[in-house]
Amino acid sequence: MGCEAIPESWRPALEPALNAAAARRLGGWLCAEETDGRTIYPPRGQRLRALELTPLDAVKVVILGQDPYHRAGQAMGLSFSVPMGVPPPPSLANIYKELASDCGIERPEHGDLSTWARQGVLLLNSCLTVEAGQAGSHAGRGWEAITDAGVAAVAEREKPAVFILWGSHAQAKAARIPALADQRHCVIRSAHPSPLSAHRGFFGSRPFSRANAFLAAHGRTPIDWRL
Question: Taking a C-beta distance cutoff of 8 angstroms, is the pair 64, 166 a contact?
């Protein structure tokens, strides 16, 4: 998508959305935007990183973000994550504060969450691209149908999973979790970790220990949240 290929493990689940006219328009539009000289984050080769690092059958936890970081050098294709050497943005810093409070894990020295992704934490944004300096600029361009299909694909599996929904935007994706009614999965909702809202219910929500307790209770290996 956007001149990149969907990882094979996700392709069957995402095929209907990928074949839709909106997805084709999205791909052409992204390539045209770059041809016109606009800077788009994350760069090509990283936009589908969440799907590449966490195959569909390996997903244990889904952490949903809104769209990638829009400042240079930050976005790397994983929600809330930044590359090694880049200071953690405020939302990630608050995630680390809650991680310390919840699990007693000291604040990591970096912001790269790839270790989580490789253990089965799908770090997925609703939109997978953004124009430099323009937060939310690619909303409504077609990514949402594709990422909705990804969330639904996890929810439709027999394997229990945890969906961590921070903020109203992520919580809107709960509609894509049809198995919620039979309690196959665990859905953890709270305020967003942004400094604007973290004190309204994010701090103290204990998402990491709650996720691991659910996984262990359902015979799945918990996540090692250390980085």
Answer: yes
What residues are paired with 61 via a beta bridge? 121, 162
CB 47 within 8 A of CB 1: yes
* This model's pTM is above 0.85: yes
Q: Distance between the two ends of the chain, CA-based, in angstroms?
A: 30
Do 223 and 121 meet the contact criterion of CB atoms below 8 Å apart?
Answer: yes
* Cβ atoms 24, 39 nearer than 8 A: no
183, with CB counted inside 10 A (0-12, 13-18, 19+), is exposed
Pairwise CA distance, residues 159 & 72, whole Å? 38
Q: How far, in Å, CA of 86 to CA of 56, rounded?
A: 28
Cα dihedral 168, 50, 68, 73 in deg (nearest 10): 150
- Backbone phi, psi, residue 112, to 5°: -85, 115
Q: How far apart are CA 195 and CA 133, in angstroms?
A: 19
10-residue mean pLDDT profile of the chain (227 residues): values are 77 93 92 95 94 98 95 97 97 98 96 98 96 94 93 92 92 74 82 96 98 97 98
Active site residues: 67
Q: Could you give the CA distance from residue 105 to residue 18 in angstroms, rounded to a whole number?
A: 40
Tokens at residue 148, please? 């909705």
